[in-house]
Specification:
Strand 17 and strand 18 form a beta hairpin. This protein folds into 2 domains: 446 residues, Anaerobic Ribonucleotide-triphosphate Reductase Large Chain (Alpha-Beta Barrel); 192 residues, no CATH class. The chain has 26 helices and 26 strands. The longest helix is centred in the middle third of the chain and has 29 residues. Catalyzes the reduction of ribonucleotides to deoxyribonucleotides. May function to provide a pool of deoxyribonucleotide precursors for DNA repair during oxygen limitation and/or for immediate growth after restoration of oxygen.
Length: 760
């Protein structure tokens, strides 16, 4: 099997994601499966059948230690919260930097840092407060690269901290803490005070001075301000901390304490804890029984057990690869894994069930119960064979409310017989943004974001060509049922913005009942959604037992996230802004014959839009001044990266005077490349390569590609000004790679056009 057969010949985007993100050193698909599965044939079968995939770090990095690469398999960590002194604050920054350098994201809680105005015994006399150090941690996140991307960071603070109001407001300044998500650890006491419109005390005791800082606030007014910030900026998120601490397998374990959450908040973790993730594709478990499509419960439960084993194999293999000793110790002692799901929306569509309906809630409740029981059973089986995780206290675990509510009698009996569990944490639901885009299915527990998306190529004269791409499950249904207009789809096709938020919360709640970690999740709401409705949404989330939730309102002020607003916004770069060229660019080469000899011209283009990005020029054995060619190539590249259109660059190159050497050779040998000087020849070669690139992209996304297979189903729109809400001309918050809209799903930015993801 090759990647085209695996993902489908028409899934060009998925193939590009695999090639650019997960493939190592031109390995074949079968070699990749062997590397990623670690030789486990059952796991390899699940990957090949698209029933299971590890998270991105494992798909990319597993086995690379054999080549001397120091790269972690874990997506994220929680670092030890900084203590209330300057040394610890900067030690935390060092821990963040080291973790990012190994490819992991981080969560850090700043609740131990004294609030603004507190006394300090140094030259400052008074501290600038906990919030002032958020920019330090954000800057570290921005500085440390991870193979073309930046690390991910979550900063949290307790709702009892006197700096709470400053924390809430910080993201209203779009220049502050730009490289971190932020969340507040909300307690039940705070929410009860909100319900009663009662006063709430913010308090902090400084250990080294004994100073007690207190501030009384109105809980309802604070809650309203948090909701208003979410309405406008989609942050800070709310972590319902009492639910996090009480609804898991370690809630009775006195030695255990959560220190924070990972960047997308699906994994509450202790200090040094890591999240090792994988997801089962529920849409792959549709079977035909008596001419009716049903969910294949039997194979699903069997595969859950295989996946638990698979994640434990990765955990053991990757134990030496964690960046810090505290991380290696924590993973060894507690052995957290995070098995999740994706493709729920696709599953429901295949079964003809409306997402959010009572029928969908009932089915997901059954699936989630089966998932947790089989995960617990397999963890107990591994404990029986290998011994429980080192910190395991079986009596404390079996007495937790979560274990009692979720474990069937025969499974509980087996856990007791086995003497414990192999893992302290088993299930989570992560965003799965890139994985789901690669497979062409819905991510996490999200509804489908939209029935269709826009992709584009660019023409030399600035007339962008847009393609309407239907979401794969939508296209599949339309093909099977002879539907040509998405308006004719049945009512069980609901999208993220058309789904009532109450149904969205109920869906998350039924999964959270059976998930011992947490769920990364976003409720997408329309522009007209009011601040009062945001308050109602968060209050309902708390009442229904969610551990956390994120909202995104179409048209809010936060940048870098999808909006379907019809307001037209220029995509031009700001003056003086130079974009970075991705390593994924496609190169084309020409050898030019000039008046002085030969000139080698290499041009690089964006793989998704075909936009010209960079050029390298060098002379042959005989040719002109090499330093001149290098300088010219740098200036052309700078112009392209600064947003100057190729047409204008070529116009300048072709405005140069005739070169006498070029003219003589043209007259005598007649073997020169088109043009009358080196710059003019370069301009003509660039135009030719650009048009060739655009032609290839057109074939790739429309009609038949060069391999002879049908390309993605697409509807060409030349008159892009008539395109409606998905119009590429109306992009407000563009993807940094291809310039089209980003979706915000599961707390993660993902581009459905080029596969870019901030989270993976």
């Amino acid at each position: 099997m090759d990647i085209m057969e695996y993902l489908g010949s028409g899934n060009i985007l998925g193939q590009d994601i695999w090639n650019n993100k997960y493939r190592y050193n031109n390995e074949e698909f079968d070699e990749w499966v062997e590397r990623v599965s670690g030789g486990n044939k059952k796991v390899a079968e699940l990957i090949i059948s698209k029933k299971f995939l590890f998270a991105g770090r494992i798909l990319t990095n597993r086995g690379l230690f054999k080549f001397g690469k120091k790269i972690t398999y874990s997506n994220c960590y929680v670092v030890t919260p900084p203590e209330d002194n300057i040394e610890s604050i900067f030690d935390t920054a060092k821990s963040l930097a080291r973790t990012y350098s190994y490819g992991g994201g981080c969560g850090v809680d700043i609740g131990k840092l004294r609030p603004k105005g507190a006394l300090v015994h140094n030259a400052a006399e008074n501290t600038s407060g906990s919030v002032s150090f958020m920019d330090l941690y954000s800057a570290v996140t921005e500085l440390i690269g991870q193979n073309g991307r930046r690390g991910a960071l979550m900063i949290s603070i307790p709702c009892t901290h006197p700096d709470l109001e400053s924390f809430i407001e910080i993201k209203s300044d779009l220049t502050k803490v730009t490289k971190a998500n932020i969340s507040i650890r909300i307690t039940n006491a705070f929410m009860e005070a909100v319900k009663e419109h009662a006063p709430f005390m913010l308090t902090f005791q400084v250990e080294d001075t004994g100073e007690v800082i207190e501030k009384e606030v109105n809980a309802y007014e604070i809650f309203c301000r948090i909701s208003e910030m979410n309405w406008d900026y989609a942050e800070p998120g709310m972590l319902f901390w009492d639910r996090i601490e009480s609804w898991n397998l370690l809630s009775n374990t006195r030695e255990f304490q959560y220190a924070g959450t990972n960047p997308c908040a699906e994994e509450p973790l202790p200090a040094g804890g890591s999240c090792l993730l994988g997801a089962i594709n529920l849409s792959a478990y549709v079977a035909i029984k008596e001419n009716t499509k049903v969910f294949d419960h039997e194979n699903f439960t069997k595969d859950v057990r295989t996946c638990v084993t698979a994640l434990n194999e990765v955990l053991d293999e990757g134990l030496p690869l964690h960046p810090l000793k505290e991380q290696r110790d924590s993973v060894r002692d507690w052995r957290q894994i995070g098995l999740g799901v994706l493709g729920i929306a696709d599953l429901l569509i295949k079964l003809g069930i409306r997402y959010g309906s009572d029928e969908s809630i009932e089915l997901c409740d059954k699936i989630a119960k089966e998932m947790i029981n089989n995960a617990i059973y397999q963890s107990a089986k591994l404990a029986k064979e290998n011994g429980p995780f080192p910190k395991c206290n079986i009596e404390e675990i079996m007495e937790t409310p979560f274990f009692k509510a979720n474990t069937e009698e025969e499974v509980a009996a087996f856990v007791k017989e086995a003497g414990g569990l192999f893992n302290s944490q088993l299930l989570t639901i992560a965003p799965t943004g890139t994985l789901s885009t690669m497979l062409g299915i819905s991510g996490g527990i999200e509804p489908i974001f939209s029935n269709s998306y826009t992709r584009k190529t660019e023409s030399l004269h600035g007339e962008d060509v847009f393609y309407k791409i239907y979401t794969p499950i939508v296209q599949e249904y339309m093909n099977e049922n002879g539907i040509t207009d998405e308006k004719d789809l049945p009512d069980f096709f609901v999208t993220a913005q058309s789904l009532p938020y109450t149904e969205r919360i109920k869906m998350q709640a039924v999964w959270q009942n059976h998930i011992d970690a947490s769920i990364s999740s976003t409720v997408n709401v329309p522009k007209e959604f009011t601040k009062e409705e945001v308050q109602a949404l968060y209050f309902m989330a708390w009442q229904y037992g969610l551990k956390g939730i994120t909202i995104f309102r179409d048209g809010c002020k936060r940048l870098g996230i999808l909006t379907t607003s019809e307001e037209k916004t220029s995509q031009n770069l700001e003056r003086g802004h130079i974009v970075k060229v991705s390593d994924a660019c496609i190169g084309k080469r020409r050898t030019l014959r000039t008046g002085c000899g030969t000139l080698h011209c290499e041009a690089f283009f964006d793989p998704f839009t075909g936009k010209f990005m960079e050029i390298f020029l060098s002379k042959g054995s005989k040719g002109g001044c090499n330093s001149f060619m290098v300088g010219l190539s740098r200036m052309i590249s700078l112009a392209a990266r600064g947003g100057i259109e190729l047409e204008d660059i070529v116009d300048q190159l072709e405005s140069t005077l005739v070169c006498s050497s070029y003219a003589v050779r043209t007259a005598t040998k007649r073997d020169t490349s088109p043009g009358s000087s080196c710059p003019m020849s370069i301009g003509k070669a660039l135009t030719q390569m650009y048009e060739e690139m655009q032609s290839e992209l057109h074939l790739k996304y429309h009609g038949v590609n060069k391999m002879g297979f049908d390309g993605e189903t697409a509807q060409l729109k030349k008159d892009h000004n008539t395109y409606d809400k998905a119009d590429g001309a109306n992009v407000v918050n563009p993807c940094p790679i291809c310039g089209l809209e980003l979706t915000f799903e599961g707390g993660c930015n993902t581009c459905k056009s080029c596969g870019y993801s901030k989270c993976e």
